[in-house]
């Protein structure tokens, strides 16, 4: 009898060409570091080039990184990133759309300009990123090799989260986008995954402009021991390391102490 498989298979990600948006911080940075450690060549995208460079320099092999300052709100930036990737490492076979922002407030106090920015980054950015690299993924899948598109969503897309109505709606849209793309691309061999984390210890939320909600976010972080972004990165590597015929499609990843059905209301200003 052969021994049971261990997952992900050793060297499963060796030599793959990955793109990670939001790689200057938090979950994206952790994912980029983990992918390099697993043997991938990785393009790190985000707006802050200095932060991207610091993350790249801290990876296991900076020679297998490419830093591209790019705003996911700008399709031309992404087109330039595609060209730079092709010049350096060739077509992408693993794309992690991880760029995102969080804003919240009691709905009546919400700032529409902040909503629009969040929609444009968290949903629009994922759409632009996915479309920019779609042909690379489809071409890879045609050869029978693994081709992966990971959308980083959020628990908030699945549960009620007072004070974060617009963020929740956007994240629900991301989950549904993953299902729709999976239906379209699964039959063509591309695995589309959505990873929906709960509270994770990153910079997310640092730009919340509503005082009560910013206080509530801090209280929420105190009440729930957040996950380490490396632990979310692990789930991406696990999904990508499975055999090409298996799609770990939807991953809800929670801190053990976070009860998704009891989001905190304290300090959000929501009555
Ligand atoms: N942390 C959590 O508790 C949590 C929970 C659920 C879901 N998530 C999701 O995880 C994703 C990553 O967030 P995080 O927690 O890692 O937060 P983070 O530490 O604040 O990282 C956000 C990343 O997104 C990038 N970004 C923001 N706007 C961008 C733009 N217009 N163009 C390109 N990059 C942009 C930032 O880079 P630059 O500023 O350099 O551009 C940064 O690298 C988000 O989609 C978030 O919704 C996080």
From TrEMBL:
This protein's UniProt keywords: Oxidoreductase
InterPro entries documented for this protein: NAD(P)-bd_dom_sf, SDR_fam
Gene3D superfamilies per UniProt: NAD(P)-binding Rossmann-like Domain (3.40.50.720)
MF (Gene Ontology): oxidoreductase activity
Family under the similarity heading: Belongs to the short-chain dehydrogenases/reductases (SDR) family.
Protein name per the record: NADP-dependent 3-hydroxy acid dehydrogenase YdfG
Species this protein is from: Geodermatophilus amargosae
Species lineage: Bacteria, Bacillati, Actinomycetota, Actinomycetes, Geodermatophilales
